[in-house]
């Protein structure tokens, strides 16, 4: 966030921190904080990534997908490809989810991302009632019952679920037990004994009294004209665009930077009541 003024960077950082801490406890409130940050720093990759994740957690898969596309363009990274695939599933497009997942060379992805992508692709196969192919999607090098990595419990569990779908209950039970064993092997004993106590300062959702110049999202729209994703992600259905304005093609962004975020953002940030937020991979050999 080095491109932001000191005051603006502090404002954005506080909202990103609040969104991160609240994500599992109160996803809707975390999403509101992400929206607040996005209004001020629409060209910062981590801001768009956070907004996408909170949108996904609240079930707004159309917005999550749009924000993930923008994050991908700004950052040049594919680390959130699994979430993009799952968001395509969320809006009812498993075929497109599979096409998107196949658009990237998986060997270029980190192992945890490869695993997450395999799980998402397997889910899309199940959506299409293709359990045999769903199982094949999960049969990747990381499916190693002799070793446990951070991603192993999720991969083993997904494999067990598909085996259940195929009526292979005994094998499913075996893999489910392996998932539990992997999770136990990876757990640190100290986790059950040490608690981190922290407080989150009140982060009001309304704008400060003295506005800070908004970050425009003009560059995104220029890049969008030649976005390689367009070859895979064809035009959005009418019901999607009615739900959220496409941030990537809003021609008014140049003249009014704050319009770079959809009307939903403006409506939420127009509220004046402050919202308080409070809180009260190495491998491990398996036996």
Kindly describe this structure.
It comes from Agromyces intestinalis. This is TPR-repeat-containing protein. The structure is a single chain. The protein has 287 residues and is mostly helical. It folds into 2 domains: 160 residues, no CATH class; 109 residues, Serine Threonine Protein Phosphatase 5, Tetratricopeptide repeat (Alpha Horseshoe). The protein is 54% helix and 1% strand. It has a two-stranded antiparallel sheet with strand order 1-2. α1 runs antiparallel to α2 and α8 packs antiparallel against α9. The longest helix has 18 residues. About 26% of the residues have low confidence.
Compile the SSE list and pairings.
Blueprint: H1 6-22, H2 27-40, H3 45-57, H4 61-75, H5 81-90, H6 94-101, H7 111-127, H8 131-138, E1 147-148, H9 152-165, H10 169-186, H11 218-224, H12 238-243, H13 263-269, E2 284-285
Antiparallel strand pairs: 1-2
Helix pairs in contact: 1-2, 2-3, 2-13, 3-4, 4-5, 5-6, 5-7, 6-7, 7-8, 7-9, 8-9, 9-10
State the gist of this model.
By secondary structure, this protein is mainly α. Helices cover 54% and strands 1% of the residues.
The largest sheet, given as strand count, sense and whether it forms a barrel, is:
2 strands, antiparallel
What's the Cα radius of gyration? 21 Å
The helix/strand series, from N terminus to C terminus, equals HHHHHHHHEHHHHHE
| Helix content estimate | 40-55%
Mean pLDDT across all residues, rounded?
78
The low-pLDDT segments are 190-199, 209-261, 271-282
Net shape: elongated
- The total strand number stands at 2
- Residue share in β-strands: under 5%
What structural category characterises the helix and strand content?
mainly alpha
Strand order of the largest sheet: 1-2
The first-to-last residue Cα distance is 46 Å
Number of domains: 2
Number of helices: 13
Biased composition (Acidic residues): 240-265
Protein name: TPR-repeat-containing protein
Region (Disordered): 240-287
Organism: Agromyces intestinalis
């Amino acid at each position: 966030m080095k491109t932001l003024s000191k005051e603006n960077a502090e404002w954005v950082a506080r909202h990103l921190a609040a969104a991160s801490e609240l994500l599992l406890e109160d996803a809707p409130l975390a999403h509101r904080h992400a929206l607040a940050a996005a209004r001020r720093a629409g060209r910062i990759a981590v801001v768009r990534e956070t907004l996408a994740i909170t949108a996904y957690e609240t079930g707004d898969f159309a917005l999550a997908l749009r924000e993930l596309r923008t994050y991908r363009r700004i950052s040049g990274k594919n680390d959130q490809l699994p979430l993009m695939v799952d968001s395509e599933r969320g809006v009812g497009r498993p075929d497109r989810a599979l096409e998107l997942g196949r658009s990237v060379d998986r060997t270029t992805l980190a192992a945890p991302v490869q695993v997450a992508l395999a799980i998402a692709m397997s889910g899309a196969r199940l959506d299409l009632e293709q359990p045999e192919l769903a199982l094949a999607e999960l049969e990747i090098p990381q499916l190693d019952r002799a070793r446990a990595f951070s991603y192993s419990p999720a991969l083993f569990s997904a494999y067990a679920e598909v085996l259940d779908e195929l009526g292979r209950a005994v094998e499913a039970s075996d893999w489910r037990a392996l998932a539990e064993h992997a999770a136990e092997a990876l757990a640190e004993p100290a986790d059950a004994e040490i608690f981190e106590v922290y407080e989150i300062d009140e982060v009001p959702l309304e704008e400060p009294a003295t506005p800070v110049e908004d970050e425009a999202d003009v560059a995104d729209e220029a890049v969008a004209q030649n976005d390689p994703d367009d070859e895979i992600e064809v035009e959005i259905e009418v019901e999607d665009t009615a739900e959220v304005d496409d941030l990537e093609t809003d021609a008014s962004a140049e003249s009014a930077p704050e319009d770079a975020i959809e009307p939903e953002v403006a409506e939420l940030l127009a509220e004046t009541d402050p919202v308080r937020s409070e809180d009260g991979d190495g491998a491990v050999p398996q036996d």
